[in-house]
Amino acid sequence: MSEVVIMPKLGFNMDEGKLVKWHKSEGDSVSSGEVLFEIHTDKTTMEVEAVTDGIVLRLLVEEGEEMPVFTPIAIIGESGENPDEILRKYNEENGIETDEESGEEEIVEETENIEEVVIDTDLKLTPRARRYVKENSLDINSIKNIEGTGFRGGITEKDIKASPIAKKLAHKLGLDISTVEGTGVGGKIVKDDVQRKSNILQEDHTKRVKDTIPYSGVRKIIGDRLSESKFTAPHLYFSNDVDTTNLTKFRKELNENSDLKISSTDLLAYALGKALKKYPEINASLVGDVIEQYESINIGIAVAGNNGLVVPVVKNIQEKTIQDVAKETKDLISRARVGKLLSEEYNGGTFTISNLGMFGIDSFTAIINPPELAILAVSSINKKPVVKTNKDGEDIILIRPMMNMQLSVDHRIIDGLLAAEFLGYVREILENPIKILM
Q1: Has domain 1-96 been given CATH number 3.50.50.60?
Q2: How far apart (Å, rounded) are the C-alpha atoms in residues 5 and 73?
Q3: Among residues 296, 340, 350, which one has the least CA distance to residue 319?
């Protein structure tokens, strides 16, 4: 049975996926349940299994390409089946308009149904390749040495044009790709060719380019979502310093009596669970014209991973012990850093912590992770002079380990008084950490 494999949608916010690796090549047999390919979603890399048995008749996407979800990326069928006919039927059944139907393809004689159209006595091109040559005004002689991979050795569009990464880079740099000389197989233009051409053009400029990195994939998704958050939700910021003297002692005592190491982030997450239970108005989201308050307290923990910012989520923290949270965060964070989280493990948060204390940051503000209403930025612990009142009512100066917290809230929903009370209660818990377990 033939099947058109599509780019799967593996998360609510996933609009496109990047084909990282094919585990099968054209002509290989594949069985249901075997890993067919790997994709990178907005946050993680996942293996995708085949759901049918057959032969890989055609791979429609190259490794490194980013494609919208539900886009056909491969065709599986039986030996001898025509992959173009399978794809045509799929497009017809799903109401997908092809280039030919939209009028962009030049009308070709019935030989189009055979896959290639003879351009001269020695050269055969597929219809799409023919169109590509025409649209880009390519010299036929310049592609004669390309080894065709189409039917009966015909040259396909994929054989001629630049690699997807090279095209994207050229577009980003504003470079006409037809002016680039390819050094790939058969003269194919690759990323390094585009970069080399760009560097040559930059030689006479005062600002020379060392390298270019396409603004795409995870970095673009993060940028788009945070831009939407920043410009849609009016942010209001609140800052407070926490004396961590008791918190540090408390953590030390816990670790002396526990087989599992409990981190400061674990204690922060657990304390926030208590605070959000007391202030459920903050444990909420704006969904359309409705404010949804949640019984579940799902704390996201921002992690800098290999593929950008990832926010694994500890679900239903209100139902767990501090040891449960420590075990879960350790596992989630370690897998987040190498891009091995499942989509459900970084979705569904109701509040987020961004802790940069380990990097020596004195203070910073964070952008709310939509559709949540607030995020807490936690900075490093520094010894500072603090004014205290002694038992005699006198003000004295003491040196205390102080930690800065910055709360960002969506001012459409959360008023200043509520945010101030919430942050004050978080400080109260952290400075009296026995309350974390009460």
Answers
A1: no
A2: 6
A3: 296
- Tens digit of each residue's pLDDT (9 = 90 or more) over 132-184: 777 766 777 767 766 676 655 667 776 677 776 787 788 788 887 767 887 77
H helical segments located in 207-279: 217-232, 245-256, 264-278
Q: Which of 171, 217, 165, 163 is nearest to 16 (CA)?
A: 217
The reply to whether 1-96 and 218-437 are identical in fold is no
Strands (E), 193-338: 235-243, 284-287, 290-293, 299-301, 303-305, 308-310, 313-314
**Could you state, in order of their start, the residue ranges of all structural domains in the chain?**
1-96, 218-437
C-alpha pair distances (Å), 79 with each of 57, 112, 378: 8, 22, 59
Mean pLDDT of the chain, nearest integer: 83
One-letter amino acid of 62: E
Q: State in Å, rounded, how far the first CA of the chain is from the last one.
A: 60
Token pair listed for 292: 């949804």
What percent of the chain stands above pLDDT 70?
Answer: 81
**In Å, how far from its chain's centre is CA 385?**
42
Q: Which amino acid is at 387?
A: V
DSSP code, position 120: S
The model's pTM is 0.61
Distance separating alpha carbons of residues 154 and 145, to the nearest angstrom = 12
CA distance 267 to 401: 17
Tens of pLDDT, residue by residue over 335-352, are 988 888 888 898 899 999
The answer to whether the bond into 371 is cis (omega within 30° of 0) is: yes
**pLDDT class for 121, splitting at 50, 70, 90?**
very low
Nearest to 69 by CA among 150, 151, 8: 8
* Long-range contacts from 102-107, C-beta under 8 angstroms, 24+ separation: 104/131, 105/131, 106/130, 106/131, 106/134
Residue 411 annotated in active site: yes
Instruction: Check pLDDT > 90 for residue 331.
Output: yes
Class of CATH domain 218-437: alpha beta
DSSP 392-428: TS-EEEEEEEEEEEEEEEETTT--HHHHHHHHHHHHH
215 neighbors 172 (Cβ within 8 angstroms): yes
Share of the chain above pLDDT 90, in %: 43
Cα 288 to Cα 227, 291, 337: the distances in Å are: 19, 8, 33
Which of 324, 276, 325 lies closest to 296, judged by CA? 276
Please say if the pLDDT value at position 329 is more than 80.
Answer: yes
Query: Which residue, chain included where needed, has tokens 């070709």?
Result: 108
Catalytic, out of 23, 40, 171, 411: 411
